[in-house]
Amino acid sequence: NFFIVALFVRGKREPLNAASEPASTDAPRQPLLNAVGDSLAAPWQVLADPALAAARPLFLSKAAFSLGFTFLTAFFPVWAIAQLGLEPKVTGWLLTYVALCNISVQAFLMKPLTRRFSERRLLTAGMVMAAASLAGWACVRSVAALVPVLTLGAFASPLFMTSCTSLLSKVPQESEVGRVLGVGVSVDCGARIVVPLTAGVL
After folding, report:
1. Per residue in 112-138, pLDDT tens?
2. What's the Cα-to-Cα distance from 80 to each of 46, 137, 175, rounded to whole Å?
3. Which residues pair with 29 in a beta bridge?
4. 3-state SS record for 26-67
């Protein structure tokens, strides 16, 4: 994502001025290496900004959550075969069930839940449910025990992710919402990079 942005969006940002003439469509372009450097530095600038200190715990919790569930997704097929002797077809159906639970929560439950509970409560509930789900894997010895654990985790993910994104969008400076949400997405992408590399080593 960083390199795509660097390649196609290399114009210098100019402050808006209502009294100025209309902006030219031929905006000056930064050298490619400078654009890439700016893109890579942006997340650290957001994290180091004192005005955005309230967002740091959200970034940390999102990183931990993303790493945990990405590890789970990466290792689940191998674990299901080794621990439960499941065939790949059955594993695929179980993952489909998890995806349907995710979709159902976001489509039908998030709206009434956000009306009744605050986003911070839903975030906390998602974290607690995720922790309980991950801990429950240690006790799974059959498919009958696996389904409740999967269900709990499938409900936890949209609760946490949706609430976390919503809270990140409410940073004090409206002009920084785009940067903050961009770093939030980068945290997810980082987990998807780190986990496969670590899984290969393990």
Report:
1. 999 999 999 999 999 999 999 989 988
2. 40, 11, 46
3. 11
4. CCCECCHHHHHHHHHHHHHHHHHCHHHHHHHHHHHHHHHHHH
